């Protein structure tokens, strides 16, 4: 691989990290409350409301069932309306966020279900409000699991960001397509794959380490 490709690989890696980090932050801000809502409105929980739970759950399932590549293309008009363009790293973050929100919601819901209900009942017996139970019982007790689940979402976003590169989203996927595949330079494609593998391993390591530190067991 020629030396002139090093700056391109560095730039592409920066674009990928930018897309994943910003998308993850925005999606987590929306997805975490969504997961809490899905859990607390389910049967027997502190804010039980089966109608709300079913409606929100149906919407979440509908979005999650759409393959990312189809979602990427289907919302191009919305992306263009929102950020003024359907091409580039900023534009790619729109479908990444939309795809990640329901995923995070379900993952957070799963983590909250692992909290023993006896802890919730104990808090209720001491007069804790639903908001206090969420902030002082459910979230702290499930944080280790939530971090592990969010790590999985980040890894998924890394793969989806590479897929976004196929339609001009920038990042490592775009570099692999334009400089590797279209110009018949397999060493560039190999380099992008190796970088993505290292990136995923790093994310997994950091996520596992943080989850272990937060584990109260």
Automatic annotation (TrEMBL):
Top-rank lineage group of the source organism: Bacteria
An annotated GO cellular component: plasma membrane
Record-annotated ABC transmembrane type-1 domain positions: 13-207
Record Pfam families: BPD_transp_1 (PF00528)
Keywords of the record: Cell membrane, Membrane, Transmembrane, Transmembrane helix, Transport
First and last residue of the signal peptide: none
Transmembrane segments: 17-39, 51-76, 82-104, 146-168, 188-211
Predominant subcellular localization, coarse grouping: membrane
Transmembrane is among the record's keywords: yes
Membrane topology type: Multi-pass membrane protein
Annotated GO biological process: D-methionine transmembrane transport
Subcellular location: Cell membrane
Record family assignment: Belongs to the binding-protein-dependent transport system permease family. CysTW subfamily.
Protein name as annotated: D-methionine transport system permease protein metI
